[in-house]
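We both want to read discrete structure tokens more fluently, so let's practise on a single case. Would you write everything just below, so we can both look at the same thing?
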Amino acid sequence: MTAFDYDFFVIGAGSGGVRAARRAAHHGARVAVAEDKALGGTCVNVGCVPKKLFVYAAEFSHALADARGYGWTPEQPGFNWATLRDNKTNEIIRLNGIYEKLLKDSGAEILTGRARLIDPHTVAVGDRHYRARHLLIATGGRPFLPDIPGREHAICSDQAFYLPRLPETIVIVGGGYIAVEFAGIFNGLGVKTHLVYRGDLFLRGFDQDVREALATEMSKRGIQLHFNEDIERIDPTADGFRARLKRGGDLDAGLFMYATGRRANTEGLGLEHTKVRLDARGAIEIDADFRTAEPSIYALGDVIGRVELTPVAIREAMVLTENLFGAGGAVMSYDNIPSAVFSQPSIGSVGLTEAQARERHANVRIFKSSFRPMKATLGGGDERALMKLVVNGDDDRVLGCHMLGDHAGEIIQGFAVAVRMGATKADFDRTIGIHPTAAEEFVTLK
């Protein structure tokens, strides 16, 4: 009789954990997945999916503003927050069911409850213990709120999806993609929106030209940006809350939301019963094969704090399970990972920024174009799109491709294939554009 109940025990049923469980089961492993919340993890429940649905909702207000120039005479439009919120929740419930079906159809067993490590091969879920040959920690991350006076009066992004009502004014604190996206969402839904960030400019790590252009466009849409600023404390008032700013002055709002990063979700996992180590940020340390300091325990996804994107966690899961249960030889690459920020307008990016390219290459050429999108000519808006190529001047290879404008994520996904394959600027130039589109600008840049 085997000493193990399972070959593979996955803690966490987010995107990475579910993919790992399904692939391991496909290879014939006996698999269990433990989850104490809804299936699908951050992305499905309080991340990518509901956020994108909210972005779609917010964009309708901009489309209505453009409508008259195209001959439409819309009557007074109205927006109902409860309808959007509840329809979003129903869609999440539907997706939870799909994840459950995917796991069950793969042959993986679903265990409901918080899993705790007892030793390197034993996991407790509730009052039952299970032994497994290999354990995977894929518990994702959780929002971080700084310890300031009055923090109990603020919410995080998780709570923003379930607000009982919209405030008249909101203050969002943070400079990452979550803060920027929610600023666009609330502004588009008619909420007076402030964004407070302690740095010079938000979206650190993205191309500087794109960051600056987005700040300009967000300001045009009425979002009030407060850079080099932070909140010292939050106090309740008769009709909301008031924040004292560190540089002096106050901000009043009906709601304060913090989007100041996420931390690895390792609390209560029982890591102290193993050799698993955490780094200075609290993320689980792993080697190139996703193995922790405990040989039987692996980790991937947001809990390891590398590239915290859903498709990255899924690819990590595929690499891990191929090497553990398949033919082996799979290698994870973090080069040229495309990404998008669903700001308004949106950002799409793949490869090196201009600053990164200049650090690594002596000869860098930049091709960029800023223009008024065709849709705005009749709509009457004054927004501008930006497209940029970063090219290695020595071998003509395209090192980076960046865009600010409508559908940037959809457009960059295709160009990411070209960048990944090592396309040159000459390859881009030889490609015939699709006219009239914004995307054709990338193959006509001079």
Q: What stands out?
A: The chain has a mean pLDDT of 97.
